[in-house]
Design goal:
By secondary structure, the chain is mostly helical. Helices cover 58% and strands 9% of the residues. The longest helix has 18 residues.
Length: 128
């Protein structure tokens, strides 16, 4: 954690930086504008092998799906994430966030924890 804080402090004021771990580059976004630029780009990018490990944690979804599938899913879901619609769910999101925090605090006492099902349930409770 201290190493990541030093990197962030070193690159303070910059929109992003590249961190090399062994032979793989990881782009770290420090400013939301940089993330917006990436996400609004209409070019399709294939996901790196890093997403395969995320697939184990989050399952197959919009975050981890291949480019073509991601493009279709994003097009279908985009209207659901309009600012005015999300504002209506703020109380629900906050309440469910407190549930997740309580759960994760309990899980830190264990040596191993599978958080996929509880996080999926909270996500579903938030949107359904």
């Amino acid at each position: 954690m201290a190493v990541s804080r030093r990197w962030i402090e070193r690159h303070k004021g910059k929109p992003l930086f590249c961190l090399w771990i062994l032979y793989k580059p990881f782009v770290v976004f420090l400013k939301t504008d940089a993330v917006k630029e990436l996400l609004k780009d209409s070019k399709m990018y294939d996901k790196s092998s890093f997403y395969e490990s995320l697939d184990l944690v989050f399952g197959s979804g919009i975050l981890t799906s291949p480019s073509e599938k991601w493009k279709l899913r994003r097009k279908l879901l985009n209207p659901c994430f309009h600012h005015d619609i999300l504002k209506q769910y703020l109380k629900v999101f906050n309440a469910n966030s407190q549930i997740v925090i309580k759960f994760l605090k309990q899980e830190t006492e264990k040596e191993f924890s599978d958080v996929r099902k509880p996080l999926t349930r909270v996500a579903m409770d938030s949107i359904c």
